[in-house]
Design brief:
11 helices; binds pyridoxine-5'-phosphate; TIM Barrel; 17% strand; single chain
Length: 241
């Protein structure tokens, strides 16, 4: 069986740094350590309010790492400019609300569709891999295909919450299974992310057809106790199932 790739999201190293306005802990060090310990890519989300990663982090990380950088951005003119300039090999377009604690759901593909199309076309011309962060909905998968992206990333937040709260997750996992199947049939690479822990990654990794997981909050949180190297190794074992 093919191994699922692991994208390590290091946003929350910057969250800790910014909490004190210091220059440590360093997101660049986290990115380099993720690379050294076998991450397949590094993910950062440059938010409109710069609450964690900032443009300096983006510049430093993209210059120093050898594995692909996956830049998560909202569909805005400012982010299109930054992405066009920095040309990260992977881009994931995500929804963004100022007051949310984290990315609360998938993109609304019908909101501002003309601009979304323009943004995708402009970035695809630069030969960057483009992904859309969406809910596990068949309608959204089909819409994503029409938008000519390479991949979709399924928002796994609802499933992960159910698993964490030891609630019945059968319906949600069935929805994700169907979405993955349809995505693959349409020729899309299907990824998964949001809220993933060891338990939810184990459950999701049993679905055939998901090629990449992007994991941040839990991974960085666990690293406080046992170190990023150990946490990445544990996730790698899970993704080899
Ligand atoms: N994938 C995407 C598209 C995201 O927006 C996020 C959160 O920023 C993640 C993955 C990582 O989620 P978490 O930090 O909950 O692991």
């Amino acid at each position: 069986m093919k191994r699922i790739r692991l994208g390590v999201n290091i946003d929350h190293v910057a969250t800790v740094r910014n909490a004190r306005g210091e220059n440590y802990p360093s997101p660049l060090t986290a990115a380099l350590l993720a690379e050294k310990n076998g991450a397949d890519s590094v993910t950062i989300h440059l938010r409109e309010d710069r609450r964690h990663i900032n443009e300096q982090d983006l510049k430093k990380i993209i210059k120093k790492i050898k594995i692909p950088l996956n830049l998560e951005i909202a569909a805005t003119k400012e982010m299109l400019k930054i992405a066009s300039r920095s040309k990260p090999p992977f881009i994931c377009i995500v929804p963004e609300k100022r007051k949310e604690i984290t990315t609360e759901g998938g993109l609304n593909l019908n909101y501002n569709k003309m601009f979304l199309k323009t943004l995708i076309n402009k970035l695809k011309k630069k030969k960057l891999r483009i992904s859309l962060f969406i809910e596990p909905s068949l309608k959204d998968i089909r819409e994503a295909k029409k938008l000519n992206v390479d991949c979709v990333e399924i928002h796994t937040g609802k499933l992960c919450n159910l698993i964490n709260q030891k609630k019945n997750y059968k319906h949600e996992i069935k929805k994700i299974e169907k979405a993955v199947k349809v995505g693959n049939l349409l020729g899309l690479e299907v990824h998964a992310g949001h809220g993933l822990t060891y338990d939810s990654a184990k459950i999701l990794s049993r679905i055939n057809g998901i090629t990449e997981f992007n994991i941040g909050h839990f991974l960085i949180g666990e690293s406080i106790f046992v170190g990023i190297s150990k946490v990445i190794k544990t996730f790698q074992k899970i993704l080899k199932l």
